[in-house]
Amino acid sequence: MDRDLVDLKHLKSRLPSQRNFSEPIQLSVEKQINHLLGLKTTLQELEIETPSEKLKRHMLTADQVTASQIHVERIRTVSPRLELEEKNLFGFLQEMPKCEIHLHMEACISRQTLLDLLEKHGVEHEKEKIERMYQFKNLQEFISLFLFILDAIRSPDDFHLIFNSLRKYLEENQIHYAEVFLAPSRMISNGLDFHEIAETIDSLASECVRTGGPEVKYLIDVSRTFGSENASKNLQRILKLKTTNIIGIGLGGAELMGPARDFKDVFAQARSEGLRCVTHAGEDDGPWSIRDSIEILQAERIGHGTSAIQDPSLIELLKGRSIPLEICLTSNVFTGKYVREEKDHPVRYYYDQGLICSVNTDDPEIFNINLSEEFFKYYKHLGFSITELIDLNRQGVYSTFHPHPASMWKQFEEKTAKLRKKYSV
């Protein structure tokens, strides 16, 4: 195995650069290297049930002083180099042009902005209680926090402040294009006018582009939390709009409360009217939720898809239909239904199996994460190489509903190549 690894690394070093065939071959070689490294680690961690006496004596008489000295030398010689490499890589990732397609607008509201909204509207609150709400332990507690944030929005004018927070986040992370979820059901029940909200956010998105900012498109969350009848009402509201930046619908909310199949008619009408359709699925429910989203709702993308790994035939379905997964690594660890540690997230397996994956934050202010840090976690915890990170970025671009993804990626690719030289990564 060690010999294979040496040969593969030697082969990788001999690949010519800037040739049409170079990048696909490099990706293939790196995937095989990562596979062998993972297999080697697994074998090294196996326990020996009946070790021989010779092996026991060898292990028990190891020179601890020498072992400690080796450990010290490794710290002195390896760590600074790794620290420099990681610093350069993170700088590269921060400047790398990106897109994000699984991002909730309301979750770009900072805690301070939330407090400001509460004070603006004269809502009594306790800072300590709000802080405790942010320490959620499961998806249901997260949704409770999310609904609390929604309740803090009391007027369409609030969206000027909210959009400013969104734009700041996008620009700080070099996100040039974003498809952003907005969940209006709770706001409407609180007395806000959906038409006014829609006109406000549409105008803000257009103004953002005119002033040199990122391009923002909206997916309205019809929400499974409030049932299919409410979802249908939300769709009718959307169909009456005359906006350019609201491009589709999404099915979010409490997954266990609203099976995808219940929203068949809503999605069928949305598709017939030319709206783009996506769903959250496999985040808090099993792979059947994902399958229903694909086969019944005909969703064009799947948000999360964490439980898909439980069903090999579903993996083949996703691959065969080229349905992108909107991966939200940190979010999945925080909610903790299927993943407790970053290193255990199935995105490594999905990518290696050839599924289309995009990197997203989901709720950056709530999870205290940004897209640059999210990419870095793939490198740090899941063994993605720099070339693979760039490929994930490319897959994200081609997973968007942008009318010209190839043109957008060409611009991204040119800048990315310059940044690789700048940071020597």
Biggest beta sheet attributes: 8 strands, parallel
The CATH first-level class comes to: Alpha Beta
Global morphology:
globular
Can you tell me the CATH superfamily?
Metal-dependent hydrolases
- So how many helices? 21
Number of domains: 1
Can you describe what's shown?
The protein has an 8-stranded parallel β-sheet. Helix 5 (about 80-95) packs antiparallel against helix 19 (about 370-380). The protein is α/β, with parallel strands linked by helices. Residues about 60-80 have low confidence and may be disordered. About 55% of the residues lie in helices and about 10% in strands. It has one domain (about 100-420): Metal-dependent hydrolases (TIM Barrel, Alpha-Beta Barrel), CATH 3.20.20. About 35% of the residues are buried. It contains 21 helices and 8 strands.
